[in-house]
What does this fold into?
Amino acid sequence: MKDTLSVLSDRGMKAPIEKGRLYLLLCFLHAVLQERLRYAPTLGWKGLWEFNDSDYECCAFIIDSWIEHMAQGRSNIAPVKLPWDLIRTMVTEMYGGKIDDEGDFNLLNGLVNQVFDQAAYEEEHELVSEPDGNGLKVPSGTSMKDFSAWVDALPEREPPSYLGLPADAEKLLLVGQGEATVKSLARITDMLEEGEQLMLENSGQE
It folds into this structure.
């Protein structure tokens, strides 16, 4: 997240000030979509969709264009006046253009709607809710420096709950990888045994 947010640091300092938080939300969404690929195709996504930085940058351009249009040169714009439905639709379509599975597209749409919420401008708003009440809350600041500090304080690897996955997703991933390895070894063993059998049959015919 740190690298993707830094790409927009200069643009995020320009008016209106509310634009910076939208960049942060986009940055978080982008990280979630990409990190879920680690768990595909069993948990995160059904397909290995090729989300990349171009999707992220195009979405940032869309945010730039519409927020500047709405602000009309003002230094601030009320969050309630931001074109939320338009932003959510355009972001969904941008990333969704890589997806050809209806279930995954609907999942993407749900993630976008969860992240791009007007409530993200309210203090103590939780981007991710946890049963114990210790969810991931948005930063209270308004500057890109504040947002960068928030990103720096995040865990090096996002917990599965941040990605909308069950808490034991990492364990399930390792179990799945282990089962795949066992199946691969079984296939290799079968091929070797078949090869040895053919060699024995050929030698017996000589």
Summary: The helical segments are 2-7, 9-12, 19-35, 53-71, 84-96, 102-115, 144-152, 169-205.
